[in-house]
Amino acid sequence: MEEQTVEALIENFAEALTEIVGAAPHILREPEGARGSYRPDFVMEMSRDGEPYRLIVEAKLSLFPRDAREAIWQLRNHLAHHDVGADPAVPVLIAETISPGARQLLRKERIGYFDSSGSLFIAARGLYLRVDKPASRKQSRSLNNLFTGRRAQVLHAVWVAKSDWFGVHELAERAGVSPATASETLIAVERREWVEVRGAGPSKERRLINPRALLDAWSTYQGSVKPKAVRYYYVRSTTPPDLQRRLDHACQGEGIPYELTGISAGQIHAPYLSNASQVSCRIPAGRAMHAVLDAIEARPVRDGWNLGVHELKSDDELPFRQRIDDLWVADPLQTYLDLLQAGGRAKELAQHLRAEKLKA
């Protein structure tokens, strides 16, 4: 980590402790160890209600579950083999960003933590401190960059692979991204412990082992961001099934890909609602899209719509669509994610779809 970042974390951590315990902690720098040996970054001496504590602190840029496990082992190994004084020794990890999964792990292992949002946890004999604060914008970007753009396509491909082993190049081809983007994303997925790994180098493979955690994290992200814009249209004198068929025929005529999504796709994958009067689709923006809308005589409206269009930047954003009953349909995962951001009874259908098709 950059020295400036570490200094800022130390200062903020000391200020947070001062505010809680009413007295400033004393910061001690750890001497350099022998080459190759581990030393924590610094030690803090503090007291609470007359009881002294010695905080053994390691600073990181960010912490996800895998990083936290490695750091816990280092700290505990250090405490087991070094004399840290008579006062109770409390291992603590501080970082700019600590993921929810890492926080949960650290609390379970009774390892203290502090991050740049001001969230804090310290547990020892006669001492229990916990402060939970929402993530900052910078932290949110670090935690959620998996769920946007090309990285989201890689994550989607990981999901589609289910429990099968896959290599970087295979996954990159499946997701329609570069091997570099796939590799970068998979490293981040490993840190979250959603996949397991075998082999090394070019033969390294991974497979999904924690689909529930992946889906929970993605669901939380979907619920925290503003839904993407949808353009609404009215197509005269047509039922939803007829409108879907007309849309498919027009797209084939223009040579443009599309996929039904939202309630339209949810009802195809896992019927739940007794009535669905509107059709939603995802389609690349451009001349061909407008030609399709003209072909089905779709008129832009604000209210009373029966066709909702999610415009995509390019046609390579549809790598996972499925052909069902002569229609192109978003796969269950994409359908679920879109339903989470739709209105009405869409969220009910989303939970039904998750239970029936995603099973996580």
From TrEMBL:
It comes from the Bacteria. Gene3D superfamilies: Winged helix-like DNA-binding domain superfamily/Winged helix DNA-binding domain (1.10.10.10). InterPro entries: WH-like_DNA-bd_sf, WH_DNA-bd_sf. This is HTH marR-type domain-containing protein. It comes from Mesorhizobium helmanticense.
